[in-house]
Amino acid sequence: MSGDGALIECESLVRIYQTGPVEVQALQGLDLVVERGEMVAVVGASGSGKSTLLSILAGTDAPTAGRARVDRWNLLSMSRADRVRYRRHTVGFVRQQTAANLVPYLTAEQMVDLPMTVAGVPGHERRERSGELLEALGVGGCAKRRPGQLSGGQQMRVAIAVALANRPHVLLADEPTGELDTATSAEVFAGLRDVNRELGVTVVVVTHDPAVSGQVERTVAIRDGRTSSEVLRRTATADDGGTHIIAEEYAVMDRAGRIQVPRDYREALELTRRVRLALEPDHITIRPDA
Ligand code: ADP
Ligand code: MG
């Protein structure tokens, strides 16, 4: 796996939660590389470690072991002061519950203003930036409204604007469409895509909505705290000039050469503990241990 020039690079990432005598391995050696300017969807069953991954990338949780780098920051060895700087300027984070992102008594523009005030941005610049961001997310008309006066979709778009206030390189969004109906969720997702394309922000979005993950070029699937597969989508032009989308699924190999063989493949050939591997000129075969 390359990734030296990538914006985000996680390798063999482990996060163990200890609650009393019980140990939960939320991440069990996860690998992830995200290039600058990419938009990546992360999918996986509930409990597979998606929120844990995002909290680590957001700098709000620390990994137990492995490697995690975002931009020039090593997330395993950041000082407290660096962590504050990192959270303020490198990443923007949109949390899983819409309400957790907003302050009930502030208007949309006051909420976008707040992180800039904390960072010491001058007043005229703050006003310009918050107007620009709310406009870019299609909620310019909601600037004077409080969360209670906004629809679910508008609340989420304001939350995205707040997360982008200090011009982070990366936007992390944890199931931003989870509580929304299909039409509203498509709108919020379109907002994320605009942010990615027009503002050049790298986006990592967790979703369990297949319709949403179908709209990004790369989807990373997490299973049991590990990256299990990736789907890459590209647009191809047919002979008649029409375009269509090709989606290809890849298994993910870690640095030690381990890959996970999908369950349906294993069952189809009754692959169990040992398999036969053979190197061919341009591929590898895996056969049952007959
Ligand atoms: P997802 O977002 O994919 O649903 P999470 O990252 O929230 O998954 O959780 C992964 C696993 O870690 C789950 O088994 C969950 O119960 C456990 N977990 C998450 N946060 C904590 C915590 N603070 N303390 C103990 N266990 C946790
Ligand atoms: Mg979650």
From TrEMBL:
SUPFAM superfamilies: P-loop containing nucleoside triphosphate hydrolases (SSF52540). One of its GO terms (molecular function) is ATP binding. Pfam families: ABC_tran (PF00005). The keyword Glycosyltransferase does not apply. The keyword DNA-binding applies. Keywords: ATP-binding, DNA-binding, Nucleotide-binding, Transport. Residues 248-290 form the SpoVT-AbrB domain. SMART domains: AAA. PROSITE patterns: ABC_TRANSPORTER_1, ABC_TRANSPORTER_2, SPOVT_ABRB. Residues 8-249 form the ABC transporter domain. This is ABC transporter ATP-binding protein. It comes from Paractinoplanes bogorensis.
